[in-house]
Design goal:
By secondary structure, the protein is of the alpha+beta class. Helix content is 16%, strand content 30%. It is built from 1 helix and 7 strands. The strands form 2 sheets. A 4-stranded antiparallel β-sheet has the order 1-2-7-6, with no helix packed on it. The chain has a 3-stranded antiparallel β-sheet with strand order 3-4-5, with no helix packed on it. A hairpin with a 2-residue loop joins strand 6 (122-126) and strand 7. The termini are far apart.
Length: 150
């Protein structure tokens, strides 16, 4: 029988490794099923949200989506993007070797960092990129306060 010296630091890291392997297993099983695409609206479409002092700009990738199949709505501090992406279905019986393009409906809701003026929104769609710019609500603009000395 071999005598092994107990090292608490080694035991601590082995437990973390075990937890990481278990989490990897859970995510692998989740990501390897077609069922994941039913609730995967957070994965599509990819978007960037940027702000400056006066406005917020959203740039969203919508490859293969017709502009007339996109519904955009804005409230005080929420932007909602809904739509549908059609993927051509193959004719006849096929066997996929790789299937990464998904079709169907999508729905993304983004909370904006400040309230905006929805009636002043501007949207354009070019080369599969949707760009939306909205002005910041006047009442939420930072105000400079002068300090008086006495």
């Amino acid at each position: 029988m071999a005598i092994v010296r107990w090292n608490p630091a080694r035991e601590q890291w082995s437990e973390l490794r075990r937890m990481q392997e278990e989490m990897d297993r859970v995510f692998r099983s989740f990501l390897n099923t077609d069922e994941q695409w039913k609730g995967a609206t957070a994965l599509f479409p990819a978007l960037n949200l940027s702000t400056d002092e006066k406005s917020v700009t959203l740039r969203c990738e919508l490859p293969g989506v017709a502009p007339d199949k996109v519904d955009l709505s804005i409230t005080k501090d929420t932007l909602t993007l809904k739509g549908e992406r059609d993927v051509a279905k193959p004719l006849g019986e096929v066997s996929y070797h790789r299937r990464e393009r998904r079709g169907g409906t999508f729905n993304r809701t983004v909370t904006l960092p400040f309230e905006v003026e929805p009636e002043k929104a501007r949207a354009s769609f070019k080369n599969g990129i949707l760009e939306v710019s909205v002005e910041r609500a006047q009442r939420t603009m930072p105000r400079q306060i002068t300090i008086k000395t006495t």
